[in-house]
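Sequence only, no structure available. Ideas?
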Amino acid sequence: MMSLPFFGFCLALAFAALGRRALAVAASLVSIGVLLTLFKLHATSALDVVL
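Reply:
I predicted one. Tokens follow.
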């Protein structure tokens, strides 16, 4: 799951290299949204600590 934002940023860099600025910005914003969503899921999950 954590690789999704990195693939998105890689895609954004590819779009930027091809001169597709709008697609690069859109891919970056989507990647940031995925990253924030994954962080929210991680930060609010319960810890299964057995002592």
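Helices lie at 3-17, 21-43.
Hope that gets you unstuck.
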